Amino acid sequence: MNGYKIPAQTRIGHVHLKVSDLQRSLDFYCGLLGFEKMVMYGDQAAFISAGGYHHHIGLNTWQSKGAPPAPEYAPGLFHTAILYPERKDLAVALQRLIDAKYQITGASDHGVSEAIYLNDPDQNGVELYWDRPKELWPKDEAGELTMYTRRLDIEGLLGLLK
Predict the structure, then answer these.
(1) Could you list the mean pLDDT of each consecutive 10-residue stretch along the chain, which spans 162 residues?
(2) CA distance to 41, 69, 158, 162, per residue, from 124 (Å)
(3) Distance CA 60, CA 58 (A)
(4) How far apart are the C-alpha atoms of 122 and 94, rounded to whole Å?
(5) How far apart (Å, rounded) are the C-alpha atoms in residues 60 and 21?
(6) I want to staple 132 with a disulfide (CB 3.0 to 4.6 A). Which of 37, 68, 136, 162 is the partner?
(7) What pTM did the predictor assign?
(8) What pLDDT was estimated at residue 36?
(9) Which residues lie closer than 8 Å to 26 by C-beta, 6 or more apart?
């Protein structure tokens, strides 16, 4: 087992979230963020995607219908990260949040990526981000990757929409 590395082509396929109100979650993920509803399992679960994939996000109320959000300071999922293909796509998402007056909890430039942070209706963390091209990722003198957290240039990001 020592020295094993997971294959570089490995990807995280989907996330499945317990939610308290399925329609409210669909309004957020589909109505606001723009995911497509692919499959409904009655009124208890939905599978949604980007671009017609079978599902990127599963939402269910099997064990959580009407329940309060999970405690903030407890083990569990920190956030779901949604990767946009282009910087302009992130700008469009940010403008949609602003237009909807949806609360944004943070915005950061990490060197390798730019990110917007918010919570879904069940207080599950959501990161909306795009990756800079790999050749632009910051590196130190030894050539090692160096990430950071700096203020996101929101004006510059939204300027892509003009």
Answers:
(1) 86 93 98 98 97 95 96 92 97 98 98 98 97 97 96 98 94
(2) 22, 8, 25, 32
(3) 7
(4) 20
(5) 9
(6) 136
(7) 0.94
(8) 98
(9) 37, 46, 48, 59
